Fold this protein.
Amino acid sequence: MTRLRGRLIVLQVMVIAMIVVLVVRLWQVQVVQGSRFVTVATETRTREVRVPALRGAILDSSGRPLVRNRTTLVVSVDRGRLERMPDGGDAVLRRLSGVLKVPLPKLKMEIRACGPGVSRPCWPGSPYTPIPVATNVNPRAALQILERQEDFPGVTADIQAMRDYPNGRDAAQLLGYLQPVTQSELEKREGLKANYSGVDLTGRDGLERTYDAALRGTAGLRAVQVDRMGKVITVDQQSDPVPGDVLVTSIDAKVQRIVEKSLDQAMQEIPNSDGAAGVVLDVKTGRVIAMASRPNYDPRVWTGGITEKDYRRLLSDKSGKPLVSRAIAGEYAPGSTFKISSASAMIADGEPLHGTYQCPGAYTVEGRSYPNAGGMSLGAISLHEALVKSCDTVFYKSGYEEWLRDGGKTPKSKVKEPMPNMAKAYGFGRRTGIDLPGESPGRIPTRAWKRDLYNSTRAEMCRRAKIGYPEMKNESRAAFAKRLANENCLEGMIFHAYEAVNLSIGQGDVLVTPLQLARAYAALVGDGNVRSPRLGWALMRPDGTLHKEIPVPVEYHLPVSDETRTYIRKALSEVPSDGTAAGAFRGFPLNVVKIGGKTGTAEVYGKEDTSWFASFAPADNPRLVTVVMVAQGGFGASTAAPAVRRIWEGIFGLGKGDNGKPVQPALPDGKPVTRLPAISRDGTQ
Amino acid sequence: MTEAMRVGRGSLARRAIGRGAVVWRMDWLLLGAVLALSVVGTLLVWSSTRTWSSIEPTAMAKKHVINLLIGLALYSAVAVSDYRWLRTYAPVLYAVALLGLVLVLTPMGSTINGHHSWIMVGGGFAVQPDELAKPVLVLMLARLLARPSERDKDRPRALNVALCIALTGVAAGLIMLEPDLGTTMVLATITGAIIVLSGVRKRWVVAGILLAAAAGAAVWSLGLLKPYQVARFTALLDPSTDPRGVGYNSRQALVAIGSGELFGKGLFHGGQTTGRFVPEQHTDFIFTVAGEELGFVGSVAVVALLGVILLRGARIARMCNDRFSALVAGGIVAWLAFQTLVNVGMTIGIMPITGVPLPFVSYGGTATFANMTAVAVLQAIHLRSRPFSS
């Protein structure tokens, strides 16, 4: 027994040693390192959840919704949680695929991060936000997921607001679209280091982008305690989200519809056209009443995650890039619609407003003959008639002579350049500053522009002058391009006479956007102020009170006398009755609503002519300016002018509806809405 | 012995509370520690399972109390009985335990929480034969090794030592088939402890330790362990190796205990416990609940109460007058000490993660019965080894 007792003492000592070891280690873990583990525990247990605010609606000038919210059941997946599972969340996704009836590979594709080499479907947003994998989920499936959280860890189903477009494709480009916010955007935004939230979308284009901050509102923040499954146990603190402002625009949904319909008809008539645009401006305020562009698309493709096919199609050349608004980003030669600028320049440069002008069939400059369209020859006419009949040779002559006075090929140190400068005064050649992203500046060629262009392209031009364009398939085109390169290399810095001549009638290197042309006409027939057009009219709080009215900035006053402006307006007022648009307006009750306008037919190298009609009404006291451009549309009088006529008929209620009955005017007497609409709490009318 | 018999002849009431009755002679410190741990264990089981069901938050705690009551009944029965009948029936008990271990492997066995070690007995209760194997093995080995060698009465017979190893091997082999590495290690420790206590030569002890180390190395290098079992050991050395699996468990256990700091967050107020960040927190990881909610003070109290049981047990063993009793008591101490070390140690990052319950604290019927029986045997030994104060 002695040995046994001895060994039992050893056992007793070992037990004591064990207890000492455990106590010492507990001291180390709980007392020495305790506070560190408290921090870690808090981090594992608490989550900060961003609660996105309800995004404000976008309304038209009468309070009709252009973009509104609708609720839908959305199932989202927390990728971080799935990745922490031993099988990478495979089992969960497989179950989810069964419940949602979505193929497993598709689910997996949707939750991977977009990046180089990973194209849609993929998740472009922050990796810490739950990724929506299904929208419009039926409530039974959602309930199944919520009730069996142990089977679906990291999967949630909740009601989310989705953008809804009650007017379909109308105004798609100017409304813009939403996309999930990226992590870097999220961090830049409010300094909220929340690690997951509901789907957080940000405006990527159009009004959604310009007014994103106001529409978005302020996200709420919930600090919650979660369990191991991510289920919320308690809410520690909560700041409620503040809903975004409602954006009231000056768009009139009815007029927008009329413009869209008119463009559709024009596109049907001209199947080869690769683009068209229509703009209606409020002359008195400079606000945009309607703006449309072709080709267009259905903005609903963005809702709930765009598919790879749709995304590719929207960006492809084949579809004509429907995301791009031709009204603000399309640059086209304006043709004769530009003559308002040239005529203003002539008068400002000292030519007589009431003088006589020669309108020969052709005007010869440096041995080259520039004919009138259709070889029209009118003899001695007034400037009035030159505008009504759109006599090019009158403007050729002035353009050429102005060019000569500036020194011709060897310019004086200080050149006057009346026509290019007047064009710039009308707002051409720079962005209008409209409240939309992606606007193009257009181009007005001047001597300085030519010199700058030459300096930046000389090396390439001279190289091409030597080697030509062997990669071009069409031999005659390649030869032409080579000749052009040679010419540019040798005397590319020279602003040639033909350029001045072309500029005078809005050809050559002159490029404008339909919106630029519309605001130039609005300045001409209005109060002479060139404004930066606005779509946004006011931001209203969700409770219906006015937050902020959006002003329309006046850039400056046209350097054109009121007498000249009135003269030109009166001349253009006869275009639909006696001028180039007489055919297009045959049968139109001009005695009821007098229309003014100017046709434009711009030649485009290698393509059909660009068809323009810039118009205003009522002609005696203009309230509205309407511009329609149809690319490859042929004569302005044959495509754009009829399109504008349809728009006027709709606005003034002059035509007959599809049912043969007279239509109600969209804007009685052409008067736009002048008072902000009253909106109710839910942000609708 | 004659004294005991005389007492036994008295009326039931006199036997219970009369002078020199069981009530006055038993080791109250031992029983007190067991009861205190049972109370603490019940509270911890309650705290860790109250979030399971919002309708009946005390369901698991109630089941635990029922287990404890059954365990205390067993305790009372065994503590007052003449424990030496256990020596007589040890082979029968061993055979029954083996049968249970075999049944587990047949279709009668059930899997709960990844361990295929249960036999359902109906009424929502299940029996875990491998828990029963622990006390039975103690009795069986003590019986074999109590018989002294003919040459030296302080040493066991060599043949019996070999037989012990064989008997352990059979039971451990069956348990490894479930598989349950933790229980296998407990059985190996019990066997090693009893053999050493029984008085084998020191050189054999050294040789045995070396052999065990070599066997361990062989098992390791030959890949006889399942990958997850290997992971548990590597995770101990470097928790970052497998942060999702085993590393997650040991990390979360450490976070829960550490965040309890000195005084704990208060019973029912442990955020990690409520959030169930630690797995199996009412059974194998119950100590994390103590660590978080009761703090350093509380967890040291739990360790201290276990220490009281172990040291009283060791004292009882030393007081024994016969080899069998001493070996049984020593074996029980070694068994419970090893489980305490492994269970508490794994939650504080000094032992690998193995499925071993914390004696008297963890939820689990069979383990509770086995532990209660074990302390009852200690108590019985105590009652019969002390000279009576007449």
